[in-house]
Design a protein that fits this description.
Low-confidence stretches: none
Order of helices and strands: EEEEEEEEEEEEEEEEEEEEEE
Family: Belongs to the pirin family.
Keywords: Iron, Metal-binding
Cofactor: Fe cation
CATH architecture of the largest domain: Sandwich
Radius of gyration: 17 Å
InterPro entries: Pirin, Pirin_N_dom, Quercetinase_C, RmlC-like_jellyroll, RmlC_Cupin_sf
CATH topology of the largest domain: Jelly Rolls
Number of strands: 22
Number of helices: 0
Mean pLDDT: 96
CATH class of the largest domain: Mainly Beta
Shape: globular
GO molecular function: metal ion binding
Length: about 240
């Protein structure tokens, strides 16, 4: 097994007033040649957007873009006519493909919105752009791995053009479980949303990221009540 640790306080940080963002990987003005990506996981941004503000319409292509709200309500719009409100418990995916322009804004004029913005390199280029979102009940991840994303529209969760599986887990203190990787050659990136956990013997705290590869199984134990996001992705 090989591993890489990204402590929360080692992330890039940009505070634009209306946007307070932490970058696990190089993004915008933050460039670290040792933190360009983990496998096909290119971007993991931990964003806080002030009330009434947001990202205006801007283009993307050939990227799988996932948004996971953690607090508040995010408002999505794009030039394909899609519009939606995304709340905690929801997962949104947008396949940029041949090209799409979208906006992400705080739906509230007064309360901040907190969300994760995640980009994956796709396994197919120039696909037709598409948008989807689903809601996942919190009870479905209590002391278990709740699948929220996969490579197949026939599997649980939203789907992407990539051999990737995302799971969320809300674990009680002391709960232990092994995550079994679904595809040989994939790696796992564990992101601690809240709490503390020990993953493959490595102690992790809130907003730490930990990548593992060349393994088939990963031992996870919650040291406190803990919320995790697990991202299994190809290590291309």
């Amino acid at each position: 097994m090989k591993t890489v640790l990204h402590p929360a306080d080692s992330r890039g940080h940009a505070n634009h007033g209306w946007l307070d963002s932490h970058h696990s990987f190089s993004f915008g003005g933050y460039h670290n040649p040792e933190r360009m990506h983990f496998g096909v996981l290119r971007v993991l941004n931990d964003d806080i957007v002030a009330g009434g503000r947001g990202f205006g319409a801007h283009p993307h292509d050939n990227m799988e873009i996932i948004s996971i709200p953690l607090g508040g309500t995010l408002e999505h719009g794009d030039n394909a006519g899609n519009h939606g409100l995304i709340r905690p418990g929801d997962v949104q995916v947008m396949s940029a493909g041949t090209g799409i322009a979208h906006s992400e804004k705080n739906h509230s004029s007064t309360e901040e919105v907190r969300f994760l913005q995640i980009w994956l390199f796709p396994d197919q280029r120039n696909v037709a752009p598409r948008y989807d979102q689903q809601h996942f009940a919190a009870e479905g991840r209590h002391n278990q791995f709740q699948q929220v994303l996969s490579p197949s529209p026939d599997d649980a969760g939203v789907w992407v053009h990539q051999q990737a599986w995302f799971h969320r887990a809300d674990l009680d203190a002391g709960h232990a479980a092994d995550y079994q990787l679904k595809k040989e050659g994939n790696g796992l990136y564990v992101f601690v949303l809240e709490g503390k956990a020990t993953v493959a013997g490595q102690a992790l705290q809130r907003r730490d990221g930990f990548g593992l590869w060349e393994t088939k199984s990963v031992a996870i134990k919650a040291d406190t009540d803990t919320q995790l996001l697990l991202m299994e992705i190809p290590m291309r």
